[in-house]
Design goal:
4 strands, 2 domains, Arc Repressor Mutant, subunit A, alpha+beta, 35% helix, Alpha-Beta Plaits, four-stranded antiparallel β-sheet
Length: 151
């Protein structure tokens, strides 16, 4: 796909804020017809710029009031393959994201739990028992601001 023009960027920004908006409402806001807006959205989807629309769940209202970021360093990379660790970690539903990173730790995990004692249970019984887990560092999320990023 060729470079994005200003209208494409406006569509991407608008959908990043609220992916439920339809082409008609978005077109009215941008001064485009519904069919023209719909064609642009379809083109952006075909190019892979726009992916699946996702629900933004309020984890606190669902009973998950604690989010913790874990840095996990594998004890011995040669004995446990990265794929084995990643496969095992996906069986833990409290883990929302798994990021393989470069730096002090091998993985960064986003873990949600009902409260701190629930997190401790997940950490002790589920995460620390995985093969290959070495050092772990926890950072509790205090607040979060979601930003659309550079577009």
């Amino acid at each position: 796909m060729s470079a994005l023009d200003d209208l494409d960027r406006q569509i991407v920004l608008a959908l990043a804020k609220d992916a439920t908006r339809n082409a008609g409402a978005l077109g009215r806001e941008l001064g485009l017809s519904q069919p023209a807006t719909w064609r642009r959205i379809k083109r952006l989807q075909s190019a892979g710029i726009l992916g699946a629309r996702k629900l933004d769940l309020d984890k606190e209202k669902l009973g998950f009031g604690v989010t913790v970021f874990l840095g996990v360093k594998l004890a011995t990379k040669g004995r446990v393959s990265l794929e084995d660790f990643e496969r095992a970690i996906t069986a833990i539903p409290e883990i929302q994201t798994v990021e393989h990173v470069l730096g002090m730790y091998d993985y960064r995990l986003r873990v949600t739990a009902r409260d701190i004692s629930d997190f401790e249970r997940v950490l002790r019984r589920r995460i620390m028992t995985l093969p290959g887990v070495g050092d772990v560092e926890a950072n509790v999320l205090l607040s979060e601001e979601t930003r659309s990023g550079p577009i």
